[in-house]
Amino acid sequence: MKKPRLVFVSPLFLFPNDAGGKIRTTNILRQLKGGFFELVLVCPATPEQLNGWRAELESVCDELVHWAPAKPPPRWRRALDLLDELPVNVVADRTRQGRDAVRQVLENGRTDLLLIDFVHGAVLMPEDVELPTICFTHNVEAEIFARHAQQSGKHLMRRIWAAQHRKMQRFEGRSLRRFRSVIAVSERDAAHFRQQYGVSRASAIPTGVDPYYYFWQAPPAVTAEVPPTAVFTGSMDSAANIDGVSFFLRQVWPLVLNARPEARFLVVGRSPAASLVQMAARMPSVELTGAVDDVRPYVHRGHAFVIPLQVGGGTRIKAYEGMALGCPVVSTTVGIEGLEAEPDQHYLRCDDAASIAAAVLRLFDDAALRQRLSVDARKLVETRFGQERVGRVFEQICIDTLHGEAGV
What we know:
It is a single chain. By secondary structure, this protein is α/β, with parallel strands linked by helices. It has 2 domains: 5-208 and 387-402, Glycogen Phosphorylase B (Rossmann fold, 3-Layer(aba) Sandwich), CATH 3.40.50; 229-384, Glycogen Phosphorylase B (Rossmann fold, 3-Layer(aba) Sandwich). Helix content is 46%, strand content 14%. The protein contains 17 helices and 13 strands. The chain has helices at residues 20-32, 47-52, 54-58, 75-80, 88-93, 96-108, 141-151, 155-176, 187-197, 239-259, 274-281, 296-300, 317-325, 333-336, 353-365, 367-384, 387-402, and strands at residues 5-9, 38-44, 63-67, 113-117, 133-136, 181-184, 202-204, 229-233, 264-268, 286-290, 304-307, 329-331, 348-349. Strands 3-2-1-4-5-6-7 form a 7-stranded parallel beta sheet, with helices on both faces. The chain is globular and about 65 Å long.
C-alpha cells in the first residue's frame, strides 16, 4: 500500500542550516522522513547546492524537485519593491520559476497533501488548489514589521516599516485563511492567528532541538586563559539580529566592560552587516566570526548566552540551543517569547541595558549560578523539547489535516 504523498514547498534552500527557520524546517523534515508520508521537497537550488549538499538533502526527503533561483535584484529594484502591494519579503519569493515548479508538481504527480513553509511562501501556491493544504508558519510576520516600526528612531524608517506592517497584515491574514490547517511554533502565535485573522484551524507545535547534536557541557571556569565571555548566535544579515546586537554593543557592552575590561563578546553568524563590522572594529573585545561550520565550540566557550532582541516574532530556537549546550541564557522578553521556560530557573530575563549588563556580570562572577541554570535548562530541553516529540506532533497534525480532522 502506497504512503500518502506530502509535497513540502520551501521558498528557501535549507542548507547550510544557518538560520532559525531553516534549522527548524530541516529538523521537522528529518523526523517526517520514513514515517506516515512519502515526502517530496520542492525548493530553489543551484547545481552547486545540489552537489554540495546531496547527502543532507537525501536525509530530509524521498524525492527532491527544484527550480533555478532568481538572481538577486539590484538595490534600486529592491527599493522599488517597497511600492508593491505585497510586502517586500513576499515580493522576493514571488518568482515565475518557483510558481511554475509548484504547479508542475501538482499537475504531474499524485499529491495527497500540500504544505507551504513560511507564510510568504504562500505566494507560490496556485489559486485553484483543491487539495488539503497546510501552512507552516515560523513567526507572526506582521508583528515583526510592527516592532521594527516601534523601535526605529528615524521618521522615514518608521513610515516604511509601518507601511510594510499594513501590507503584511493583509497578506498574512488573507493567505492563512486559504489553508485547511495552520501550524504555528507557539500557542501564542496560534492564538494570534485565530483571534486576529479568523483562522479557525491553527495548531501549535513545541520548539525542539536535537539533544544529541547539541550536547551538554558545563560552563567553563573563568580564568586568565579563559576570560569572561558572552556569546550570541544567529544570522547576522537578519534585521532583528542586527538590531539586537547593535543595541547590545551600544548600550550593554560598555557597562560590562566598565566592570570587567577583560571580557569578550563573540557574535557567531553569517554575513554580519557593515554597520556591525564598523562598530566591532572599534571594540577589540568583540569578535564577529562570520559563517562557521559548527556553532557548538563557540557556545561551549561562553559564560553567558545573550539574546538581546528588541524585535522579532515566532520563537527563537537559538534559546533552546544555548540551553541544550549548557551555556546560561540571558534574554529579553522578546528573545524568549513563546518558549516554555521559567525566568530565574532556566534563564535570566531582563529588558533594559542596565539589567542585561548586570545579569551578564552575575554569570561572569557566580560559577554556582552558571552551573544551576545550565543543568536546569538542559533538563527542560531533554524532558520536554526533544526533536522526536516535535516531529510526532507535527506529523499528527498533517495526518489529521489529510483526513479533514485538523483543529485547535
